[in-house]
Amino acid sequence: xxxxxxxxxxxxxxxxxxxxxxxxxxxxxxxxxxxxxxxxxxxxxxxxxxxxxxxxxxxxxxxxxxxxxxxxxxxxxxxxxxxxxxxxxxxxxxxxxxxxxxxxxxxxxxxxxxxxxxxxxxxxxxxxxxxxxxxxxxxxxxxxxxxxxxxxxxxxxxxxxxxxxxxxxxxxxxxxxxxxxxxxxxxxxxxxxxxxxxxxxxxxxxxxxxxxxxxxxxxxxxxxxxxxxxxxxxxxxxxxxxxxxxxxxxxxxxxxxxxxxxxxxxxxxxxxxxxxxxxxxxxxxxxxxxxxxxxxxxxxxxxxxxxxxxxxxxxxxxxxxxxxxxxxxxxxxxxxxxxxxxxxxxxxxxxxxxxxxxxxxxxxxxxxxxxxxxxxxxxxxxxxxxxxxxxxxxxxxxxxxxxxxxxxxxxxxxxxxxxxxxxxxxxxxxxxxxxxxxxxxxxxxxxxxxxxxxxxxxxxxxxxxxxxx
Length: 469
Known about the structure:
Blueprint: H1 3-7, E1 25-27, E2 33-35, E3 37-38, H2 49-58, H3 71-90, E4 97-102, H4 105-122, E5 135-139, H5 148-151, E6 155-158, H6 164-176, E7 180-186, H7 198-207, E8 211-215, H8 227-230, E9 234-238, E10 249-254, H9 255-260, E11 271-274, E12 279-281, H10 295-309, H11 313-332, E13 337-340, E14 357-362, H12 367-378, E15 380-381, E16 383-385, H13 390-395, E17 402-406, H14 413-429, E18 435-438, E19 441-444
Parallel strand pairs: 3-15, 5-6, 5-7, 7-8, 8-9
Antiparallel strand pairs: 1-2, 4-10, 9-10, 11-12, 13-14, 14-17, 16-17, 18-19
Helix pairs in contact: 2-10, 3-10, 6-7, 11-14, 12-14
């Protein structure tokens, strides 16, 4: 679809679903306000309005779960356990799969890593032995959440090629070599938005006796997933990227490893019997959910999953795809803007393509400075940095980072237009304000814009960890 044609499209001019804060105003550094164009969905997506409404319904009944006889406790327990069923349906889980609520995708993958460590130990494999068997295989394009946990285990990495076909061949070569216990891959790159053929990867893993875990933090908010049909063994994703507030994540998958793995947290609720010198651990989700669970996080995550599941898949994908094509076409018309991608043959794989993520850089400008400029002078929010994917950014020739625009069901055509206009103005007119580095981050000099009264604007808090999500 051409840039001109898409400008006439009505579908993407309104949000596909209403989100909280969709009409939020942001103050500009020169004065005045403008509707905030949120193009940072891949970091944390805004809550759906019906999720916020559901929270208000549930909140009066919020209480401790599982062991309370009171009415509110029984209602909360019902909500919490029913959330598992909703999530299981959302991802097409098998009848005997386990659904475990965690803090986020990173927590889910660390939980699974602990179970894999237990499997290796039970088989007699220990870290540091020569001729180690039962390794974890992962790609070099992974988010750190799907890379760092595996580095503590026997592991191998695969450098992704510049095509999906060649990458699949490299993965198969490593699987054929044997000794792979688990293949760990992303469902969609958090850097470029490109989708991997997870169904084919699952088939490859199983052909050579391995299992597969998919980091679906970016995939789940944008595409249908069906564990039963795909054969994916384990799936991890986060509520905060799925249009739900609070810190809740999910790990869904085959119960045998989860029931024999070391409990993720040692504490109340994860046991069936405790003596002073010994413990008998539970099976099922309780084994890994010690302590008081995040009931509201699970409830809102499940509500978001149910809302997305009710969407027409074609409308869902078309909304994002048109926005993405519009943005990429707009950037292509601006000299000095570079859009970055991994694979040359995504079109040959129907299940692939890209989600609502566009990675770009501007020749001659630091990514952090551009992000600060877009926010301060245009009210546009994008992400800059290395996106917790340092090996991938280095491969793309962007060791100091790049920019990422990301969107979803609450995005509008105007959001992409504003970004294009802001970048055009930068390359045409330059910066309209002075910017300085504060605690490692670019910020406007002499910034007098006020935060809401309940959010203190403390000097020196602009800094952020160098691993931006």
